[in-house]
Amino acid sequence: MGFDSDIRACARLVQRGDPVRFRSVMASPINLRPPLFVIYAFNLETSRAAWVSKEPGIAEIRLQWWHDTLEEIAIKQSLSSHEVVSPLATILSPRSAQNLKRLVSARRWDIYSEPFENAVSFDAYLYDTSTTLLAAAADSLGAAEISVVKNFGYAAGLARFFQAVPRLIAAGRQPLLSLHEADLSELAEMGLSRLREARRRRVAVSKQAGFAFLAGWQTGIILNLVRRSPQSVKTGLRPPSAVFNSISLSARALTGRW
What we know:
Distance between the termini: 25 Å
Order of helices and strands: HHHHHHHHHHHHH
CATH class of the largest domain: Mainly Alpha
CATH topology of the largest domain: Farnesyl Diphosphate Synthase
Number of strands: 0
């Protein structure tokens, strides 16, 4: 797949809206970048749905449109031209398209102010948003054992969710079941345990699919920061310096040790 106008449009979307994933794609071999740009552009469009309007009904309509579009991709139905949908239809397997419908459905939590009911519902949100995205990205590149995808996807999703907490609080949300420091540290340790288990099974992920895991290159840094300084979750996690980020990402890309 080359860099046609749709791929370039997806790349611009990711560059503007998701710079962490954009940098991870740019650290990947050039021939692997197009599917990653497209899948991350799709993720960006669905994650924005809850924030583009104060009207829940409008956000619901946007998400339903993506849900229906994925169903059409899964059954190979003819689709209208769209800068994200058109290349997405050529990249996704029917299985990935069906699985990503769970991501769209999970994004409905973002629309409303109700907190998660319990730990099970919170974990399900992380799996449906982060793990399904990673699974689709990895599947577009090569083979990856699903248990590794689930563990790494959970850890990466948790790290990103921690980063989003101040914004969610400012929007009047109750993002986590508990904001007590001991509970935050325990949750971060759980994420680190999943991360360690995923990395222990790194050999079960092909070299090509491993580049999809690069999007979570900051995961360990963020989770360790929360474990040590849980109070920073509410005030805002300070990311590592740009120089450290660049060195860390480059090293993981070169060695394959995501």
